[in-house]
């Protein structure tokens, strides 16, 4: 058999794995996020409340569309900014022959050619999209399971304190039909923990900061500041408590860090070859040894053909 061409390697599993593994997982994640968001398949837990509880007696701030950071704006930014940043960084690095741009072209079944630039863009954006839906699922699941009320819950609930027999503020109401307000507003007011907007904003910022080649200090600070601002506005408008926002921050950041470090691994350096007679030094940062993280390897990286060491980065989809 003739030697494999320089810059090209073959794989018979990349297309089946993409079609029957990764697309199936992505479709299942999207469907689960849809059922959480737009159906009543998962009913919200109904928590009780204390009469005249000041923590839930803030004025109703109005529909979400009237917020200083409405959902349309948040979702547009978390979609457009990372996409443009990743595309710009990858295109710039590819045409300037930067580090990590020497990946090989993959040939599948002698009919499909996967350019390294195309593979990296699909890898980054595909994992990012998966993380967005995963963050949505975690946030919605937390809201459904806990049923924590928003700061303006009593303003939308409009309980009849006389009929409920509220003699003091320490009386706890567990009646499911205690609210007389708009049922849709009451249902929305029971979904406060964690803050989904805060989770999505921080996820988008952390993923972009850690995964892109354009992660300069100014860009990092701007993205993280915008994400924090979303949470601050949510609290200032009485749409979430601080605990809800902090939980959203943690959820989004944790998912982003896991995906970048263990799935994308765009900044994980390949180990240099072992030199005979010379002890191998452990990887370190600032003189401190690094412990390996338990990472998830994508099936797309289990490619046939000889392994090469010409790239500066470990290639993980």
TrEMBL record:
One of its GO terms (cellular component) is plasma membrane. Keywords: Cell membrane, Cell projection, Glycoprotein, Membrane, Transmembrane, Transmembrane helix. It comes from the Eukaryota. The chain crosses the membrane at residues 12-36, 72-96, 218-236, 248-270. Residues 125-260 form the Phosphatidic acid phosphatase type 2/haloperoxidase domain. The keyword Cell cycle does not apply. InterPro entries: PAP-like, PAP2/HPO, PAP2/HPO_sf. One of its GO terms (biological process) is signal transduction. It is a multi-pass membrane protein. GO terms for molecular function: phosphatidate phosphatase activity. It is found in: Cell membrane; Cell projection, Neuron projection. Pfam families: PAP2 (PF01569). The keyword Transmembrane helix applies. Its main location: membrane. May play a role in neurite outgrowth and neurogenesis. Belongs to the PA-phosphatase related phosphoesterase family. This is Phospholipid phosphatase-related protein type 1.
């Amino acid at each position: 058999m003739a030697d494999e061409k320089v810059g090209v390697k073959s794989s018979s599993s990349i297309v089946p794995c993409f079609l029957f593994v990764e697309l199936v997982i992505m479709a299942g994640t999207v469907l689960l996020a849809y059922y959480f968001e737009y159906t009543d398949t998962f009913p919200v837990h109904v928590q009780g409340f204390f009469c005249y509880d000041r923590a839930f007696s803030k004025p109703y701030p109005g529909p979400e569309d009237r917020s200083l950071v409405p959902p349309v704006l948040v979702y547009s930014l978390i979609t457009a900014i990372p996409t443009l940043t990743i595309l710009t960084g990858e295109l710039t690095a590819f045409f300037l022959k930067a580090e990590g741009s020497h990946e090989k072209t993959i040939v599948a079944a002698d009919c499909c050619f996967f350019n390294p630039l195309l593979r990296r863009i699909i890898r980054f954006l595909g994992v990012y999209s998966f993380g967005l839906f995963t963050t949505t699922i975690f946030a919605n699941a937390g809201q459904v399971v806990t049923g924590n009320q928003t700061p303006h819950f009593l303003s939308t609930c409009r309980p009849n304190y006389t009929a409920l027999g509220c003699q003091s503020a320490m009386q706890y109401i567990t009646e499911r039909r205690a609210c007389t307000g708009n049922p849709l507003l009451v249902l929305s007011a029971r979904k406060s923990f964690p803050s989904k907007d805060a989770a999505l904003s921080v996820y988008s910022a952390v993923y972009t900061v850690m995964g892109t080649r354009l992660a300069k200090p100014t860009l990092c600070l701007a993205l993280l500041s915008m994400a924090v601002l979303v949470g601050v506005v949510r609290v200032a408008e009485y749409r979430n408590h601080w605990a809800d926002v902090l939980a959203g921050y943690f959820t989004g950041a944790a998912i982003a860090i896991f995906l970048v470090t263990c799935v994308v691994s765009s900044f994980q350096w390949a180990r240099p070859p072992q030199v005979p007679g010379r002890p191998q030094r452990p990887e370190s940062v600032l003189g401190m040894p690094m412990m390996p993280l338990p990472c998830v390897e994508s099936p797309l990286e289990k490619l046939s053909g000889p392994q090469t060491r010409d790239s500066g980065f470990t290639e993980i989809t």
